[in-house]
Amino acid sequence: MTSAAEPLHTAITRRNCLLPPLLGLGLLSIGEQSWAGGQIEEPLIDSVRTALSSAVHNAAPPIPEFATTEQRLNYLRWLGAMSERLKRKKADLETRKEFLQTVWYESKRAGLDVALVLGLIQVESNFRKYAVSVVGARGYMQVMPFWTRVIGDGDAGRLFHMQTNLRFGCVILRHYLDREKGDMFLALGRYNGSRGKPQYPDAVFANKRLWEFVATAK
């Protein structure tokens, strides 16, 4: 895990403010259920806007660093196992490896469970880079374009860039988790705009189980 995870968690913890919820499920195919809700953009207090903007703009590359050889080996085992599971969604090996490495990096950087982020991506976009919901949410983690204006550079087209989309999604979910004092059920509800309702969190938790990995020493 890189040292970038700690500054992000510190920067967006202990903030008491209103933040607009992310939109939910991207369109997967005709007839498939969508979890998208009716979200409203709400104002951010300056301190939170600054913290989230800083977290999004940190330009650290997604290169994993490890304190021990065993940690690196476990990461490589994880990468191999997840690559095999993702093969049906992304046929090209190098594409899968780049995607998984970036998900791992951005999840760890935000202090999030990698399996949960992968489960959320499966629910939101079914791993489709260019997924767009009926209300305009974009990319893997279905980020609404207004986020690029609120805490980004205003270029909504960048939400189709892999690392940009994953970074926005992870940073915002981390903030919601801090607001909810570690309650992931409620944080996911905020992410989807359905706080307190079980359907969306339950769907993410169910998909999380598909991406869990137990590190083993050899």
What does this structure look like?
The chain is mainly α. It has one domain (5-211): Orthogonal Bundle (Lysozyme), CATH 1.10.530. Helix content is 50%, strand content 0%. The protein is globular, with a radius of gyration of 16 Å. The two termini are 20 Å apart. Residues 1-7 and 9-35 have low confidence and may be disordered.
Annotate the secondary structure layout.
Elements: H1 5-11, H2 46-57, H3 69-86, H4 93-109, H5 114-125, H6 146-150, H7 162-179, H8 184-192, H9 199-208
Helix pairs in contact: 3-4, 4-7, 5-9, 7-8, 8-9
Major beta-sheet overview: none
Q: Globular, elongated, flat, extended or rod-shaped: what is the shape? A: globular
**Low-confidence sequence ranges:** 1-7, 9-35
CATH structural class: Mainly Alpha
- Tally of helical runs: 9
Question: What structural category arises from helix and sheet content?
Answer: mainly alpha
Number of domains: 1
The string of secondary-structure elements, in order, is HHHHHHHHH
Q: Averaging pLDDT over every residue, what do you get?
A: 80
**Rg result:** 16 Å
Beta-strand proportion: under 5%
How is the CATH topology named?
Answer: Lysozyme
Helix content: 40-55%
Tell me the distance between the termini: 20 Å
Overall number of strands: 0
